[in-house]
Amino acid sequence: xxxxxxxxxxxxxxxxxxxxxxxxxxxxxxxxxxxxxxxxxxxxxxxxxxxxxxxxxxxxxxxxxxxxxxxxxxxxxxxxxxxxxxxxxxxxxxxxxxxxxxxxxxxxxxxxxxxxxxxxxxxxxxxxxxxxxxxxxxxxxxxxxxxxxxxxxxxxxxxxxxxxxxxxxxxxxxxxxxxxxxxxxxxxxxxxxxxxxxxxxxxxxxxxxxxxxxxxxxxxxxxxxxxxxxxxxxxxxxxxxxxxxxxxxxxxxxxxxxxxxxxxxxxxxxxxxxxxxxxxxxxxxxxxxxxxxxxxxxxxxxxxxxxxxxxxxxxxxxxxxxxxxxxxxxxxxxxxxxxxxxxxxxxxxxxxxxxxxxxxxxxxxxxxxxxxxxxxxxxxxxxxxxxxxxxxxxxxxxxxxxxxxxxxxxxxxxxxxxxxxxxxxxxxxxxxxxxxxxxxxxxxxxxxxxxxxxxxxxxxxxxxxxxxxxxxxxxxxxxxxxxxxxxxxxxxxxxxxxxxxxxxxxxxxxxxxxxxxxxxxxxxxxxxxxxxxxxxxxxxxxxxxxxxxxxxxxxxxxxxxxxxxxxxxxx
Length: 571
Ligand code: ATP
Ligand code: MG
Hints:
By secondary structure, the protein is of the alpha+beta class. The longest helix is centred in the first third of the chain and has 21 residues, at about 165-185. It is built from 16 helices and 31 strands. About 30% of the residues lie in helices and about 30% in strands. Adenosine-5'-triphosphate binds near residues 140 and 448.
């Protein structure tokens, strides 16, 4: 490929609206352009990278028996109504009408459509298991599109769905998918980690996210320093004993008589802690939620955060949201900030750690007052106690009790055992060995192909630009003739191009009539793994210069051996 004929609009300056390294570099390297918020054009050099990721994903999906299909991006409302998700999906789903006024959405995912396909086409257990996948555009009207193509509204996903006659088969394919994902991200040259993810109300240990480790990641991973346990913090468990070593000071003190104290205008944990001179760990925070239409009061310690996923799971709730001030006032008969569990007429659930608090502080259910020396068990008894709080760094690992460490990650893939969630509500089933109808057991497996491209850059860049993992680079080698007007230089460049192309490499020749400085800068920005520079002076001695993008030094080699040396070094 000749750069003079290639659409590669590189930018010198930092695009002002790019909020991460990868977004900046993708814009600067001419990979993408923004059309509108969360909507991007992929230019030739960007698309080359996307296609390389796609190819790796396809090969590994085929290796585990996946069959590629292509599903519509415009999906009919009626299918989404069958599962109730037309209502549940909310504003992330973009809805539209056709000329007959029939309603559709732009696919944010495809469980409904694929389940519909399989219920029409598959009859018997003999046709199972089945693993179908597609590559395609997904649209989610993200509330805050950001980080370039990492969180865009339109993006490119590989989504796979499996259908099984029994659990054992579903679990076997789930494990195959995890293996395939591991190979995919290894082949992409990424540092990543599979972590346990939240399974919502389905439960079980059958959801894993694949996280690319990067400080700029939006997700937090809690990982054990010794046993290999790793989970999204949203998911990471803390058992009843998790607070054994972290109990608030003075835990052994005797129970004191409860009293009431005026705290005018002071409701927030930090302020109460200061005013009453008690550590936040002795304050019991009272948080109001509405679960499936009913008010619920959750208690966590002042130094902990409530985890909504855990609360939702403990309650078995379908819909959970934080209660507004009105619900708060009605339930606790006081202003927000002054509620507490003592004498509260409500459904109260508490985190394990709350039960270990001795002589704690809570709101008094009376505006401008708190209670001191509150003792769970003596002064109030929650209806349920469970794991409700977010883990914090150094919490004991739920498996082996070693301290947990936190890492930041970018979620690039997600595997989920769905069970009969969709097949059940869509009446999608097969005839089992006994001839009776049984719902498909399903799994789903997604990879954000376009997000992988950005994540790779996020993980591998330097002050000069992108440093591509070789498997994802838009080209394998860049040939950089310094003086394109010099016939000998161009002849040498062409010879190298032919030799490398003959060995199967994708080669880009920078044949632009540009200053050397401009060409070198663009070469570094583009991040192609190998650069061969052809200059008049060295060529007169029969030599060219080879440099790896991720190496400091270059080496001079004879022109007639250059291709061979590069291929050998590349491995
Ligand atoms: P997130 O928590 O980041 O919103 P998600 O849980 O909504 O992700 P899934 O529904 O599991 O994502 O989709 C599968 C994959 O699609 C994700 O692992 C991610 O790589 C990718 N993805 C999801 N949303 C976006 C987006 N807005 N832009 C780009 N890629 C995305
Ligand atoms: Mg999302």
